[in-house]
Write a structure and sequence with these properties.
5-stranded antiparallel β-sheet, alpha+beta
Amino acid sequence: MVFSAAVQGESHLKRELERENLLAGRRFPCQDRAVASCSLVAADGTTFSFMGVSDGHGGAPYFRSHRGAEFALQVVQDIVVRRMDRIGELAAAGDFDTIRSQLALAIVKDWHKLIDQDLRDSPVSAVELEFLEREKPLVAAAYREGRDLYSMYGCTLVSYIATERFWFAIQIGDGDFAISPDGREFTLPMPADEVCFLNQTTSLCDAAAAKEFRSVAGTQLPKVALCSTDGVANSFKTEGQLKNFYRSLFNLLTTSEFPQCQQLQCQNQDKCDIGCKASLVGQEIRRYLPALSKGGSGDDIGLAAIVSLSAADLKEIQALQDYLHGYHIKHNPSAVTASGKSPEQVMFSYFTKAERGRNAKAKFELALYYYNKADSQLALKKMKAAATAGYPEAMVQLGDWYAEGYGGSPDPKKARRLYQKAAALGSKVASQRLEGE
């Protein structure tokens, strides 16, 4: 799965609504850019994943920084396509420092070329300089004289490439690069940039930009890799909160129960399309990012992610979707209209498929199904399996069955142990059972 999005910051939206800016028609569009792809092919035939984010500086002197951000991401991808053979050779030799230095030089050189062409195609206009002359007259004068024009396009860059044999990330300026081997524990392995402090950051427009890049690399491909602009990290008070945010993004894909899935609105009901689930995740993240900016940094936000799903991951996601379909049919039997089977048959089929995928909630539902069929042996077997899998509701139900002696003699000690386990997992019902003893 790949994801990328860039959204306008809340503070920029507010500035556009200020009376002076409204009257002048002054806009503050999103300066961040983000891209992600998992199936690019280099000139030497190597298939690789690529993602990156770039944060245009914004502000009066950097009125073309959104273009600079676009150019930054374009040149990195183009260079990797052209020179993957050389990058692969250096990676095989473990010489990632040379990859960084050579790639940095190439990025700056090609970025300058694109800007030179852009200036030839679209010379700096009086309209562009109008606001700058009010706020920064000396800078405007320099631009009129053709000096320091690359600063107009100033931006940061965080990018990542991965093949079957290695991964490599390179960065200049602020922002973050994060990886996780399992989607749960995240690290920020990029070396710190001591220059980045408050509003100060290294930039592609710096005279010594090629020497200011940092990099990190490895041969064990991460399950999750993310690139984000500083608008993301600055929306959280601590690094721990930032990592929790990254973890929640992975959980959206693997554990979230979207209403669309429950209502059988998937593209393929019999075999959940992972592309459909990924699309729902992407929509949810894009919906949330403006709220993140509003409640956090107020800055533009750029975010890109690559998630490598294993066969076990896909099985887990499929099982969740099958459970959701079965649950929906259980409570909405009229949803089954064209299969020729009864709602009960279809529900049972979905729960059975989900159980094979080790979905604890499906085990719980099958236990209730057999309970309603007066099959105490199978009901107890399925409920024990659901409880063993860690589902608190199953622990409470199994405890109730032990307490009342369902399928055998009452066993209050077993019931109490199950209530205690469920209560420890946050079950209010289990806590009430213990209080009522």
